[in-house]
Amino acid sequence: MNANPEPKIGMPEPGSAALAIEVEDLECRYGDTVVLNGITFTVKEGELFFVIGGSGCGKTTLLRHLVGLMKPAKGTVRYFGENFTNDDLAARRNLLKTFGVLYQSSALWSSMTLRENVALPLEEYTTLSRREREEIVALKLAQVGLAGFEDYFPAELSGGMRKRAGLARALALDPRIVFFDEPSAGLDPVLSRKLDELILQIRETLGTTMVIVSHELANIYALADRVIMLDHDAKGIIAEGRPRELAATSGDPRVQEFLTRGGEEVKTA
């Protein structure tokens, strides 16, 4: 795989695209404990954007705030110019339809088949007929290479197949944004690379904006247009930019240590 892919045909240059996400002065806390403070960044439409950093720096906490699982102590999150952090439940529900989430564990319902798992968002957010829903489910499973597995249960699948099934569910509503929480967790290098290829393919064919939480350097260098790096002690962002440029030019030893793993060359296929 090209470790630093060229912009895809039909995809906007990251620097020229409209904004998909705007985060301003976000504060994330558990009770009285502040985890992140002053978080401000933007994500452009069609961008492969990574949130990176070491364990315990707040990556997953930030993701939970972005997708509405937690309410920020202060600050705002906007999707396509619309405020997601206000108290208008109808507006929030409409915005929820514009993005999907692939959780680290895939979060599939074990008692449901893949067909039933992928159909859940369609049942919740649309008025489509059963036949229409089944057609979309078949299409989404085929899109991730799982055609013919509609009636399998998650326990009957490998870890990589469950990840792809989770992605099919995240894509069910044709979201404009997909969030990933450590997508390569639990996968061997071959399966991880195949998932990278699938993510690139979806971005290329659908123009989907991707926000990926990860600490895996191979995935970061293979996919990321741009990253923000969080730090536990700083409780915020300590670097932002293209990962290879940050590795080459950042004077912050924390950034250098993370992006070069102590000076070792990072190799991606």
CATH homology-level superfamily of the largest domain: P-loop containing nucleotide triphosphate hydrolases
Rg, nearest Å: 18 Å
Q: What's the CATH C level of the largest domain?
A: Alpha Beta
Q: Helix fraction?
A: 25-40%
Alpha-carbon distance between the termini? 5 Å
Based on Cα principal axes, name the global outline: globular
- The total number of structural domains is 2
Beta-strand level of the residues, as a percent range? 15-25%
The tally of strands reads 10
Helix and strand succession? EEEHEEHEHHHEHEHEEHH
DSSP helix count?
A: 9
Q: In terms of structural class, how would the helical and strand content be classed? A: alpha/beta
Unreliable stretches (pLDDT < 50, length at least 5) are 1-15
Mean pLDDT score: 87
- Largest sheet: number of strands, sense, barrel closure: 6 strands, mixed
* Strand order across the largest sheet: 6-7-8-3-9-10
CATH topology of the largest domain: Rossmann fold
Instruction: Quickly give the CATH architecture of the largest domain.
Output: 3-Layer(aba) Sandwich
